Amino acid sequence: MSKQGIIFDMDGTLWDSAEGVAKSWTEVVAEKYTDQRVITVDEIHGVMGKTMDVIARLLFPELDKEQSEELLDHCCKQENAYLREHGGILYPDLEEIMQTLQKKYHLYIVSNCQSGYIEAFLDHYKLGHYFEDIECYGNTGEKKAGNIRAVVARNALTDAVYVGDIQGDYDASCEAGVRFIHAAYGFGTIDRKVPAIGQLSDLPEVIDGVFAE
Length: 213
What we know:
By secondary structure, the protein is of the alpha/beta class. 49% of the residues lie in helices and 15% in strands. A 6-stranded parallel β-sheet has the order 5-4-1-6-7-8, sandwiched between helices. A two-stranded antiparallel sheet has the order 2-3. Helix 1 (18-32) packs across helix 2 (41-47). 38% of the residues are buried.
């Protein structure tokens, strides 16, 4: 019996949390490091989708590896608390689309984020009942491809599609051996011709076509 799953990226696919992330990180940096540094929304958009160790090096190159990762760890803890309370910007009709998709497919989330980030999103919007499993870099230390493979394996999926917005998402889906749909409304472009959605509400129709191939 076939079991088809849709695995979602977070940032640029389900929501945009950059404004809250930038604000919470700036507060932490002022407290722990320097009040002369403001983390901007553009900076956050520029590093979304990357693993936390890479983000630490990009945002704080003047610090050594241990210092930058320790500072980012403080930022991420504050970020989780902020987003759990305040949320971010959901893409239009998200819950309605999840309701529609859940009738036919099994839904999951895999992100390169820190531990607790996905849970903050699910808790704030009360969306946890739509997703059967989640995984992230912060939990496993694995890159996205490994976490996609883990979700596919432990949920015994016979066919899966990863929905993401940047090149790294496409590359990870290829490495993991799953199909891919580009969330073209997000933060990046893809260097291959792939199925794409211009808005989240396009997904039910596009996903049916992908799984029918």
